[in-house]
Amino acid sequence: MIRYIGQRLLQGAFVLWAAYTVSFLILYLLPGDAVSIMASGDEQNAVDPALVEKLRAEYGLDRPLYEQYFIALFKALQLDFGLSIKNGVPATQTVAEVLPETIKLAVAGFALAVLLGSALAVVAAFSRNRWIRQAFSSLPPLGIAVPTFWIGLLLLQFFSFRLRLFPAIGNDGGQSLVLPALTLAIPTSAVIAQLLTRSLHQTLGEPYIEQIRAKGASEALINFGHALRNAAIPTLTMLGILVGNLLAGAVVSETVFSRAGIGRLTVTAVNSRDIPVVQTLVVLAAAIFVVTSLIVDLIYPLVDPRINTSRGAKA
Amino acid sequence: MTQQLVRETRSVDPAAGHSAAAPEASVPVPPAADQASVTWAGARWAGARRFLAKPGLVLSVLVLALVILWALVPQAFTQWPPDTGVPSSRLKPPSAEHWFGTDSLGRDLFSRVVHGSATSLAATAVAVAVGLVAGSALGLLAGSIRGWVDDAIMRVMDVLLAIPSLLLSLALITVLGFGTINIAIAVGIASVANFARIMRAETLRVSTAVYVEAARSSGVRWHSILLRHVLPNAAGPVLALSALEFGMAVLSISSLSFLGFGAPPPSAEWGSLVAGGRDYLVAAWWLVTLPGVVIAAVVLSTNRISHAFQDSERNRP
Q1: Architecture of the domain made up of A99-308
Q2: pTM for this one?
Q3: Which one of A144, A235, A275 makes the best mutation probe of the B interface by having the most chain B beta carbons within 10 Å?
Q4: pLDDT digits (tens, 9 = 90+) for A225-272
Q5: Residues B164, A244: C-beta atoms closer than 8 Å
Q6: Which residues on chain B are in Cβ contact (under 8 Å) with A197?
Q7: How do the domains of chain A map onto residue ranges?
């Protein structure tokens, strides 16, 4: 078990290193050069050559590439991703300041998504009425196809402006969290519902379900005690990507509802071409993916005792 | 943002899968063996009948065809100009005259959606093309050379998959700059990993086929094998993915243009049209709602078509 965890930690560290390297290559080495972009702010303005030279020396960009990379990597290991070019504060600090708001939003959104998604899937798979089944199983493809920003604006229009139930913008209190969390939850719940419905259908066709039924178990026990539990496993596999998508959804949701958070920070950072902040956010996203995958691997054996961790779960 | 998810969703259960997502897919499909004896024209006819037996699919194709026509000949669908407004008819609700209503400058919204579809669809096509070409090339390379090249390429692809695609596109936009074409390229690059994975899997599958071995043992050069055998036989699943990625690219591009990274005003693009209606949520519901309906309809249709592609792949003898 310990050896397995160690192995997974090593793999996680590799993904993080690779994510850092890929983002370094994209942001610092691709077309043009980072410093002139940062110095100009946008392409139209003339670039001040003296400022460029100063920044170049400051960021160590006058050195050979491999040297720059190793210096940057060494600093990144100490969680130093450089200074935000917007206000000169360390990029990691800029991100850390607004991170709690996004965590709140993401946790609320994910909880809602799991509830909504499982409810949809359970009705779609267990209902005896053909029409209800079809109606509920046609909802997830719809949820995947509608743009997140559009859902947010419709919710805003209806619940904030028409019914005046929730505040339209801002970060204060639980009231302001409801609509952004719902916006975040709808696309994610559609994915969860689709995965879970499919795996429930498959599980209900398994021979052991037939055997439990033959032994006289009630339908409720079969559905909720056996089928749902077994069907949840394939959905669990996707948790890493689902959580990553919450982060992408937060970009849209926080912009629509003008909430402070790392989503809106991403948009402002891209707008002002704040490369250190953008890189911090990319590496953070990869870190979240790595940690979620690790957690999934660790809870796997609890859900499904057949999975032998000493040989490694297939995640 | 959900292309990996949707792809994984599709592959969870290939056998029972389609019954849940699309009710009309459960229409019984004649087994392939029956068709072997039918003439070519007969098979064509059977294919057409099977197609017409799925109303959802027919509707999807019609929606997509309509939107493509909008992009090609916008003036055939609306006589209103997209960029010049009539100040006296500001913020008019939808009516027989203005199907989608008018915006704050008195411009006809339906005309703006119709004229904007050229930009949106062109950007989507560029994005899919970038992903398809770069991803397929990398996948083909990884799958045919194997060894450390394979390892290196696929590890990089794994890392790209670990970063949410919208965030990856945003990082690329930081470097590439704003504008419709840059958005399209960024979205395309963010989807490279999906194409590379499918292409590599298909290359590995086809490479072990007997006819490839026969070709190799009779001395056919490796590049001829790739072009003549591997590529055509791997095309099916890759095209199905392209259809799916097309819908996802419409979503990503409209999201990015909603966030303000697309073409500057007054040019109309679906996402920026929705963004333009944000300030009039109370006064003019149609400004946000109706362009959004168009985006959702297009994505729903391409997802349905991609689904049909996958089904036909599966039912192939």
Answers
A1: Orthogonal Bundle (1.10)
A2: 0.84
A3: A144
A4: 888 888 888 888 888 788 888 988 999 999 999 999 999 999 999 988
A5: yes
A6: 20
A7: 2-77, 99-308
